[in-house]
Amino acid sequence: xxxxxxxxxxxxxxxxxxxxxxxxxxxxxxxxxxxxxxxxxxxxxxxxxxxxxxxxxxxxxxxxxxxxxxxxxxxxxxxxxxxxxxxxxxxxxxxxxxxxxxxxxxxxxxxxxxxxxxxxxxxxxxxxxxxxxxxxxxxxxxxxxxxxxxxxxxxxxxxxxxxxxxxxxxxxxxxxxxxxxxxxxxxxxxxxxxxxxxxxx
Amino acid sequence: xxxxxxxxxxxxxxxxxxxxxxxxxxxxxxxxxxxxxxxxxxxxxxxxxxxxxxxxxxxxxxxxxxxxxxxxxxxxxxxxxxxxxxxxxxxxxxxxxxxxxxxxxxxxxxxxxxxxxxxxxxxxxxxxxxxxxxxxxxxxxxxxxxxxxxxx
Lengths: 201, 152
Ligand SMILES: [Cu+2]
Description:
A: about 200 residues; alpha+beta; Glutaredoxin; 5-stranded mixed beta sheet; two-stranded antiparallel sheet; 6 helices; B: about 150 residues; mainly beta; Immunoglobulin-like; 11-stranded mixed beta sheet; disordered N terminus; binds copper (II) ion
């Protein structure tokens, strides 16, 4: 383990270390065909910065069933694949008349300016919302969603960031519904999301 | 990840009297287009060692501030991108750098995003075969296998 937590500007979130244990011990079969978690306190209020530089909260962002992913734009392989998967799921659902949102929250606030996350998300879906924020805002949002991230020390410009890859399905009133691992295909994400959306309607 | 290369094996059988040597061929070299303000991009390709001795990819040279070989490891749903010093290319085998696995990481794109239709000229540096030129075609990100067209 060469990575070391560094200064306050590139902060690390350690809460995610327990997420896997938590997911596997609390997972239960859901009628919508995905594992879910009973009474899990995932999500909740956050304050972040939008693509246009405005401060936004979860109430502004999650106005319909929404897929929420935490990543960073310096990531050339995993984040784009997962983000594209979510964008395709949204398109599949749109064709079926189910309107959902997609959100990408940066865990690399040092490099991911509002403009950078805006361009990144535009590359995948016209309506995808990209969020970043101060290191403190991003850390608080990540903690609320129980995701893990850590910037690897040693390179001020080209550093890499370890991060959780699950996508959360959130609803405006009821909050967390379920999560998707990165190996879940877009079709399955769409199908399960439609099931939850149908129940909520 | 590593695919046995049958033609390579056949060659191996025929070339028993020849001195062991490395012969590298590359295929399917591509990089995905990036957003205008992207800072990094990924390159992917398949490398085949048609020779009779093992070889090792030790570097990729290209006109970017930093180019590295990377892989991504996953543990408990956490992705961890890792710098590789070298990628072994055994005799007679094809090693694929594919999305979700290994990639060539082009870093420091600032202001020069990867644009569809353009190319990246690079040099692969092998321990045995030496320098092997390669051209990465910049393409739109495909989601092969998803069977869903993504139009805007
Ligand atoms: Cu990389």
